[in-house]
TrEMBL record, chain A:
<protein>
    <recommendedName>
        <fullName>HTH TFE/IIEalpha-type domain-containing protein</fullName>
    </recommendedName>
</protein>
<comment type="similarity">
    <text>Belongs to the TFIIE alpha subunit family.</text>
</comment>
<feature type="region of interest" description="Disordered">
    <location>
        <begin position="329"/>
        <end position="351"/>
    </location>
</feature>
<feature type="compositionally biased region" description="Basic and acidic residues">
    <location>
        <begin position="340"/>
        <end position="351"/>
    </location>
</feature>
<dbReference type="GO" id="GO:0005673">
    <property type="term" value="C:transcription factor TFIIE complex"/>
</dbReference>
<dbReference type="Pfam" id="PF02002">
    <property type="entry name" value="TFIIE_alpha"/>
</dbReference>
<feature type="domain" description="HTH TFE/IIEalpha-type">
    <location>
        <begin position="2"/>
        <end position="127"/>
    </location>
</feature>
<dbReference type="InterPro" id="IPR024550">
    <property type="entry name" value="TFIIEa/SarR/Rpc3_HTH_dom"/>
</dbReference>
<dbReference type="InterPro" id="IPR036390">
    <property type="entry name" value="WH_DNA-bd_sf"/>
</dbReference>
TrEMBL record, chain B:
<dbReference type="InterPro" id="IPR012340">
    <property type="entry name" value="NA-bd_OB-fold"/>
</dbReference>
<dbReference type="GO" id="GO:0003727">
    <property type="term" value="F:single-stranded RNA binding"/>
</dbReference>
<feature type="domain" description="RNA polymerase Rpb7-like N-terminal">
    <location>
        <begin position="8"/>
        <end position="64"/>
    </location>
</feature>
<protein>
    <recommendedName>
        <fullName>DNA-directed RNA polymerase subunit</fullName>
    </recommendedName>
</protein>
<keyword id="KW-0240">DNA-directed RNA polymerase</keyword>
<dbReference type="GO" id="GO:0003697">
    <property type="term" value="F:single-stranded DNA binding"/>
</dbReference>
<dbReference type="GO" id="GO:0031369">
    <property type="term" value="F:translation initiation factor binding"/>
</dbReference>
<dbReference type="GO" id="GO:0045948">
    <property type="term" value="P:positive regulation of translational initiation"/>
</dbReference>
<comment type="function">
    <text>DNA-dependent RNA polymerase which catalyzes the transcription of DNA into RNA using the four ribonucleoside triphosphates as substrates.</text>
</comment>
Length: 456, 176
């Protein structure tokens, strides 16, 4: 429901925005009005998204999309984060990332959008009201002879010594105030009438504005008291997305498919390295050197951090970093060698090992949980059987003892079953992982894990 | 609004001023040159309050003039949009009136004068309310709000309004 605000605003304000340069011929086909609305709508359904991916999804040319996004960035609706993916230096700017600063889980975005829309409405109303009261408006004067226009700011040059009127600089004609001229054209009978008509027009406009933007304002008031959804910076978001995937693995819960796929798509890029080296945006062409230096002198960075580099992004724990690092192995392996050489000289081997360790750890964790569940189930079963036996045999105390004892037996039995199964499952998982290391995205691997848990 | 800032200027000095009171000569010339001027960037230089330092003089080829880089503290006045000023009316005509707040000229067009004030032409043109209780004429003092500024390299011009709460005549020259 929170998208509604963005959607309404998009339709109200950005309906007829063309993102075209003026030099291009305007043909019917290249008319891209409404694209802005489409893009904004699409962004409401996403969180952080890569520009190229968005372009592909919308079947738009990436250039066109970028232009639209830049426009929205200027309008403060969208946050973009630029990042270099220096995989062989080939994809230098391709990692420019557009984040929607709207949609649900966006912190700055939603906050900002709310303010942007409110400000816009305020300005619209203020302008009309000012105009209505003749307040804060710069009076304009027109020369009826040559049509030259002046504003009140030119007044000093326009006063003449002979009379009390303003005179045109070029033809020395007597200037008239703009609204007066309107009146003269309309055959109105003087200043007052014209002014009145103008006021009526303005009043109409103001009323229309109130009526037409009512849904938007209602939405604004509805959203006002809601907490701003957390979204954070790109890096924080990435970390959280990948962490969410991890967590989803652990408790074998349903993974939100869109989120996990996005998160993993992002996990594939160089998040932890960026986090380590604190290089988020690099406009200059000297990124290679700079990053190395920074990674070495990480602790001594006294620079003022831009707002998107807030602490969240760097407060990743070692574990988190490690976790995410594994996800980097496919896309980022080459980059990893470049960036994290001080930490991990033999990245690939380490990675593999880490992955295996991690999997075993996760596996045992899940196993333990499963076991507990089974125990509980067994307990229940026993209680049932106890009641049965209670019916059959008279002595209750002995039954209880039997129950306890047999429960233990059951436990052991459970364990046996589990342990027998465990290595097999683990092996299959790990084999699968290792084999797939170079082609398979993380999501599918995790999904497999889930299925395994279910079976186990 | 007034600011106390440090500015720098190259002073060219004729050799005849050299001597034991070279410094005084430089300062005197600086005051003569700078005070009362207007730059679009800083506004009107109202007064020099002190000299920060005078650099090494450089003899210009051919002329014998020496240029000294001088750093000086000064008070500048720069009007801003939205600022409230008190000003003295200098001229009243059908289009509105002109007023001065120190060095800055302000024009208030008749659209920005309250609707109940009518223009009265005559020997002493003025704007008067229908009951004659308030009158704006030459030498009246008014409080006005600046709603627009035009800043050129050497000139600042403002337009103002008195069509707002607490704005308008603040004394009556006839009564005074």
């Amino acid at each position: 429901m929170k998208h509604r605000l963005v959607k309404l605003a998009a339709r109200a304000f950005y309906d007829d925005i063309t993102t075209k340069g003026d030099n291009q011929p305007k043909t019917g086909r290249s008319d891209n009005r409404g694209i802005a609305v489409v893009v904004l709508d699409a962004l409401t359904r996403r969180q952080w998204v890569r520009e190229e991916d968005l372009a592909k999804d919308l079947k738009l040319h990436s250039k066109q999309l970028r232009r639209t996004l830049r426009f929205f960035e200027e309008e403060k609706l969208v946050t973009r984060d630029h990042r270099r993916e220096t995989a062989k230096g080939a994809k230098i700017y391709s990692a420019a990332v557009a984040a929607t600063a709207d949609g649900h889980p966006l912190k700055e975005g939603e906050e900002k959008i709310y303010d942007v829309i409110r400000y816009r409405l305020h300005r619209m109303k203020k302008k009309l009201k000012d105009e209505l009261d003749n307040k804060n408006t710069v009076q304009e004067y027109i020369c009826p002879n040559c049509g030259k226009r002046y504003t009140a700011l030119d007044a000093l040059r326009l006063i003449s010594l002979e009379d009390e009127f303003f005179h045109c600089e070029s033809c020395n004609g007597e200037l008239v105030a703009e609204s007066d001229k309107l009146a003269a054209q309309e055959g109105g009978d003087g200043d007052d009438n014209a002014r009145r008509r103008r006021r009526e027009k303005l009043k109409d406009m103001l009323q229309n504005l109130e009526v037409q933007l009512k849904p938007l304002m209602d939405q604004l008031t509805r959203v006002k008291d809601l907490p701003v959804p957390e979204f954070g910076t790109l890096h924080a978001w990435e970390a959280r997305a990948s962490a969410a995937v991890r967590a989803a693995n652990g408790d074998s819960g349903a993974i939100d498919p869109s989120k996990s796929s996005q998160g993993l798509g992002y996990g594939g890029t160089s998040l932890p390295f960026v986090g380590d080296t604190k290089v988020e945006v690099d406009f200059s062409g000297t990124e290679g050197k700079g990053e190395n230096i920074k990674s070495e002198t990480e602790s001594s960075s006294l620079k003022v951090l831009p707002p998107w580099m807030i602490k969240e992004g760097m407060n990743l724990t070692k574990e988190q970093r490690g976790e995410v690092k594994q996800e980097l192995r496919m896309d980022g392996s080459s980059a990893a060698v470049e960036f994290s050489d001080d930490k991990k000289p033999t990245v690939e081997n380490d990675d593999k090992k880490n992955i295996q360790d991690e999997y075993i750890k996760a596996y045992y964790a899940a196993l333990l949980k499963k076991q507990q569940e089974l125990d509980e189930a067994a307990k229940k079963e026993h209680e049932l059987s106890n009641t049965h036996s209670l019916n059959g045999v008279s002595d209750t105390t002995s039954n209880r003892q039997v129950g306890i004892k047999s429960k233990r037996d059951e436990d052991e039995g459970d364990d046996d079953v589990e342990w027998e199964e465990a290595p097999a499952a683990g092996n299959s998982n790990e084999n699968y992982k290792v084999n797939d290391l170079n082609v398979q995205a993380d999501a599918s691997g995790d999904d497999e894990d889930d299925i395994d848990w279910e079976e186990g | 609004m007034f600011f106390h800032i440090v500015l720098e200027r190259n002073m060219q000095l004729h050799p005849r001023h050299f001597g034991r009171n070279l410094r005084d000569n430089i300062v005197a010339k600086l005051m003569k040159d700078v005070e009362g001027t207007c730059s679009g960037r800083h506004g009107f230089v109202v007064a020099i309050t002190g000299i920060e330092n005078i650099g090494k003089g450089l003899i210009r080829d051919g002329t014998g003039f020496v240029s000294f880089p001088v750093k000086y503290q000064c008070v500048v006045f720069r009007p801003f949009k939205g600022e409230i000023l008190e000003a003295v009316v200098t001229m009243v005509n059908k289009m509105g009136f002109f007023a001065e707040a120190g060095p800055v000229q302000i024009f208030v067009s008749n659209h920005l004068i309250p609707d109940d004030m009518e223009f009265q032409s005559g020997d002493m043109p003025n704007y008067t309310t229908s009951d004659g209780s308030v009158k704006i004429q030459k030498d009246s003092e008014v409080r006005l709000k600046i709603i627009g500024t035009r800043v050129d390299a050497t000139e600042i011009f403002c337009i103002g309004t008195i069509k707002d709460d607490f704005l308008g005549v603040i004394n009556d020259p006839a009564a005074a």
